[in-house]
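Archive transcription. Copying these from loose printouts into the bound notebook so they stop getting lost. Printout 1 of 2:
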Amino acid sequence: MPRLAGVDIPENKRVEASLQYIYGVGRINVRGILEKAKVDGNKRTNQLALEELSRLQKVLDEVKVEGDLRKAIGQNISRLKETGSYRGIRHARGLPARGQRTRTNARTKRGKRMTIGALKKEALAKVEASKVEKAKKEEKK
């Protein structure tokens, strides 16, 4: 299995598809990377010569991918949080930051549904029991 930018690339797929396994390389910029490296995108990854792999690695070193890209994105989000911008507050609260509705949907960002308001007797008893346990733990501290 060839290794580019710290990621194992699948052997039996076309180069154009297998480069997309690298974080930060998508369908659009993979063509530019292949043109710069002068590699045929229709070739299978296991058919690439060592010279072609080294050219691909040199081109990928110029592009921000994997750890560098993740670090930059994390820094951008922390900067938004520190400045107290609207988007930063939404990130901190775990809500959608780009104007999506949250009254319905947004389950992937907000997590599992939690009923607020009217509870059944059994559920209310569980909630009260957990509150009592938390109070006991705090008293021990």
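Printout 2 of 2:
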Amino acid sequence: MKNYVQEGNTITVVAPAAITSGQLVVVGAINGVAAFDAASGADVEVTVEGVFELPKVITDVVAQGDKVYWDSGQAKLTKTAGTGSKPMVGVATAAAGNGVTTVNCRLMPTGQIGPA
């Protein structure tokens, strides 16, 4: 196929801020986990498929299978759906209770903004 670009499991985006390897990166409706550190404005490879341990709002009680969203104000995942630019990142693959700072998240396809 002459129009094939790439497999798409990892894509290159422009870092919206300084990025650390393993950090969730949200660029519009694209969400992925950074493969390496990058300065703000630099290209960074992000993996857009798989299960990753990511920071969550400490007071959220997340059940296995709950949808999780990016809370840009706290720079953490939350199970509280929002509107506008609060993208759905994926689903929890394991429970994470109150007081727990991370959740295992299966990244979902990009392009979902707000409640999904």
